Amino acid sequence: MSTTPTAASSPFATAAARAAHVARGVAETHPFYVARAEGARVWDTEGREYLDFVGGIGVLNTGHRHPKVVEAAKRQLDAVMHTCFQVASYDVYTELAARLNALVSGGPNKTLLLTTGVEATENAVKIARGYTNRPAVIAFNGAFHGRTLLGLSMTASSTGYKQNFGPFASEVYHTPFPYEYRGITSADALKALQYLFDTRVTPSQVAAIIIEPQLGEGGFVPAPAEFMRELRRICTAHGIVLIADEIQCGFGRTGKMWAYEHSGIEPDLVTMAKSLGGGLPLSAVTGKAAIMDAPAAGGLGGTYAGNPVACAAALAVLDVFRDEHVLEQAERQAAQMAAALGALKAAHPQVGDVRGLGAMKAIEIVHPEDQSPDMASAGRIVDLSRARGLLLLKSGTAKNVIRLLPPLTTPADELARGLDILTGACREVFA
After folding, report:
1. pLDDT digits (tens, 9 = 90+) for 172-221
2. Around Cβ 335, how many Cβ atoms within 10 Å?
3. pTM of the entire structure?
4. Of the four listed, 95, 102, 108, 146, which is most buried by Cβ atoms within 10 Å?
5. 323, 352, 387 — which closes off a domain?
6. Which domain CATH number covers 178?
7. Would you call 419 helix, strand, or coil by DSSP?
8. Could you give the CA distance from residue 363 to residue 103 in angstroms, rounded to a whole number?
């Protein structure tokens, strides 16, 4: 791990300051403070350098502080920082909406801009309810849709998120997500959905089905294409709004702009956030105009929703995707990751599964004798990798899945170095 000189640390960049001033419920994966970041690398306040394969949990598909994104934000700062769009409009909001409308399949589309991912999922449900005049929502086991009341009600990836925060929103139902490594096929999941219709909520009462085309917090499990296509058929047959939650799996992470494209379907609404703003807080709901226009004026919005600085950054992100061929970079990255992780699985029976669409890859760490989750070994791999200069993050309901989210713009040599660190950490832990 290399080091670089840094200025003296702030008195607030300490573990003691964090413990004294930050709420205990805010988790800490890597116990250090970041001093600066660039591309696929970050440096802590002690000068240590790390390769960042977390990317702000999927926020930095174009990398830390991409120059075009930084410059666009600076230009906007010199013009307008905030007015509240529903009070006084600004063109970067409308321009971004138009570009997102063109990027999402189907159409004509319309877009609502917001601030956080959970605002997008909650507003997508509001829009679906307004359009259908129905109350119920169906989500999937393993899903993560946010931490607010309705978001947590739809989330089913970890009891740690829910704790004792209930009661939760009513009329939210869960059904199994197809997870073939754990024995749940598409046919099994579809039978369970039909059983839910038969026993708990009729299709005529369901406003929306919301699904991550590849689970994020739930362990990077991709939904099989045949399952997504059958879900589309069911929603169309019963007038149910199909919402694709692309907040983590969108913006090129899976090798296509949207993960739902792998199955050839068109969702009714798409939620997005994370890499949309290139590091600034911004989210959106984009979808079919007739559905998006169901709420009357005043039903949608937010004080900071679609902030002009974040919108300017997002327009630059889209320019980077176009001009720097980021989707092609993602395909090359996916091949490089697949080769390294495949070799890791072949060498170690503790790597029970390697999976993920495109460059949204993960390894599931298990006890080889029975394939049960091995959370302790996964944690040791993450810690040892950090000590050697690589930042990783766990996921999965048992926190035994190590997910990889390097910027899609990561140079091939830096990606190789990070994969080598992961390989060495696994070798040591499994020895």
Report:
1. 999 999 999 999 999 999 999 999 999 999 999 999 999 999 999 999 99
2. 13
3. 0.96
4. 146
5. 323
6. 3.40.640.10
7. helix
8. 31
